Amino acid sequence: xxxxxxxxxxxPHFLSSTATSPKPIDMADVTTVIFDVGGVLMFxxxxxxxxxxxxxxxxxxxxxxxxxxxxxxxxxxxxxxxxHGNIVDWADEKxxxxxxxxxxxxxxxxxxxxxxxxxxxxxxxxxxxxxSFDSPQYQxxxxxxxxxxxxxxxFSLNVLSNATASLDWSLDLAGIRPxxxxxxxxxxEQCEKPDAAIYHKALDRIGVMPSACVFIDxxxxxVEAARALGMQAYHLDRSQGMTLLAFADVLLS
Length: 253
Description:
This protein has a five-stranded parallel β-sheet. The protein is elongated, with a radius of gyration of 21 Å. It is an alpha/beta fold. It has two domains: 12-44 and 140-252, 3-Layer(aba) Sandwich (Rossmann fold), CATH 3.40.50.1000; 48-134, no CATH class. Helices cover 46% and strands 12% of the residues. Strand 6 (213-217), helix 10 (220-228) and strand 7 form a beta-alpha-beta unit.
């Protein structure tokens, strides 16, 4: 998949007043920009389940058996969260991921015809956990840093994202945290977009009125929720050729 984008390849609806784009902004009132992360600033480079599959195949497990075991993960996750509740912080996320990897290790060893001394549930669990978590999931879009560099001198930049706790660390790994004054992540807040509560928490944390904010997200329901609270909001659909640099151009024009 090609994640490079030409800043001039912009859907005209991105800049016009339509059901999915706001009217031109009165920049005299805007002091703050709030970004979603996934689909706006970064994309998932490799899902953890893909890393686990790659590791298991490399260790010689049968491809069909690996795929059958990994196909059980949605049901495992549903049962896990029904029993343990939502992920609130890194401790919760770590426990979920370790239990998930243990489930995969147990299932694949039981299903496999291989018989090797190294096929120990604990050892395989540790390997799957360490490698799937250590492999960076998120990667910056090519226009993310240039857009942030352009906006940073003029606006307070902030993040509001539906994500687990480890996304917080991904901003450090990507090197973009210094651009943001506040990072609000749903796991810590016990609510998520498009629930109005998390927008209010973000506004309170930043210390700004909705009318002074521009919000950008790749999901239209989140954009509409922000508008309902009085924020200017942009729907950034990269699949339609929209870019973060074009968004920056609108704010700086």
